[in-house]
Amino acid sequence: MKKFLRAIKDGAIKGLRTGLFLLKIMIPVYLVVVLVKYSPLMPWLEKIFTPAMRIFNLPADGVVPIITGIFTDEYGVIAAMGGFDFTTAGITTIAMISLTFHSIPVESAIAQKIGFPAVPFGLFRLVSAIFIGVLVGWLGGVIL
Amino acid sequence: MSASFETIVMEMLTGSLTTIFNLLKVLVPLMIVIQLLMVYHIIEKLASRLEGLGKLMGMSKNAMFPLLVGFVMGVSYGAGTLLELNKTNPLSKRDMALVGIFMFLCHGIIETGMLFGVAGASVWVITVGRTLIAFGVTIILARTPFIRRMDNQVPISNSPQAQEGLKELADKE
Questions:
Q1: Cα B161 from chain centroid (whole Å)
Q2: Are A110 and A66 in contact (CB under 8 A)?
Q3: Euclidean distance between the first and final Cα of chain A, in Å?
Q4: Each residue of B28-37: pLDDT tens digit?
Q5: With the CA atoms of A85, A90, A95 and A98 taken in that order, what torsion angle do they form, in degrees rounded to the nearest 10?
Q6: Predicted complex ipTM
Q7: How far is B167 from chain A (nearest CA, A)?
Q8: Do B27 and A140 touch (CB under 8 A)?
């Protein structure tokens, strides 16, 4: 029982500490996303990525969390998604794409450290993310 | 700029703070669950139960433990376990490749499920869906010649048994 309570206490402290650490990521990401959203860059991004996002059944805004996720991590995706209004199907599709292809700089470094070649693994994840995105984007409109 | 300065500052402050608050609702229970899993060695026990699934994905039984750690808790935990394991009981090249394929497609299933669930995604799709996709892809890739041709021998120089054997031989001579 002592072991159990101790695990709960340690876990709670770790959770709070991670939350504190995430403040340092979330606030800058949110700032950049809100700035981009209202800047002249956004209509331009929308124009370029509308066709690409259409294959995932996503609005053009979907490109912002996806790109954010490639360079930051899952938490960056959440922060970036908060800046826009997406449907459940849209959020699920973005989640599936980003969860397959995210934090590429950090996770490539981890991959290399444990002996996986970074480039083939990165490409493998990119190709899988596109397939999964098309699949979920297409199914999402039907089941969600 | 198509919005006033105040709108931008307000949106940034309220948005990032609500997001952080939502994350804390996930992070604290998540870390408690992970801590409990570690303290009670639950993943180790699960790994020995799931050997059959590992076999289906072309893995030997050692591979299942690091795979499950990465799958349940996240890539950094999985990588840490692989590094630890490499010191005492290294995996073959083929096992490493298969664990990598599965783990980089689908990891941190509890964390991401809770996180994106709070953010409004369908929890079923992002947990069960991702698991099935990673499982299927690994099963298929394990049967391709590229993976099958890979060495399935544990690197001899690294394995502790080999080291000991060599030492014994040397002692006898």
A1: 27
A2: no
A3: 43
A4: 999 999 999 9
A5: -90
A6: 0.85
A7: 28
A8: no
